[in-house]
Amino acid sequence: MQDQMMNQMQEMMSPVRKLNALMLDNTEKLVSFQLDRVRSYADLGIKQMRAALEVNDSKSLQSFMSEQTKLASTLSQQLTDDAKTLATMGEQFGKELQKVSKENISTLQQTATQTATQAASRKPA
Asked: What is the pLDDT of residues 9-30, one digit of tens each?
């Protein structure tokens, strides 16, 4: 009887574990992406600060300003790409969440039906 109860509890907790695993995997992907992007933008900022330190006359200032225009375009494209990547990650997570939710609902319904059947068979007539 105790083994049966433990098995039922494990079956009922299985959907929660699947959902938690999905959430953890998504969080890990998101954090990894964000850390990569922060590092990339920080490196870019430091590179620009170093380039600004090299300005010492009008010619180097003109060159620096020209590079800033190019950088702004590159940065704008990178931000757009990052936004698309985040949107794709969100869509994928949503699809996986729906899949796991459907599986979990099915599992919970089966477990509830089994429990109800077992409870009904134990009742004295």
From this structure: 777 777 788 889 999 999 999 9
- Predicted model pTM: 0.72
Q: Could you write out the three-class secondary structure of 91-102?
A: HHHHHHHHHHHH
Token pair 């800033």 in the structure block, residue? 68
Residues 6 or more apart whose CB falls under 8 angstroms from that of 22 comprise 93, 96, 97, 100
* The amino acid at 125: A
Spatial contact of 103 and 18, defined as CB atoms under 8 Å apart = yes
Pair 37, 24: CB distance under 8 Å: no
Distances (CA, A) of 26 to 30, 54, 88, 96: 6, 42, 12, 10
Tokens 């949503």 locate to 94
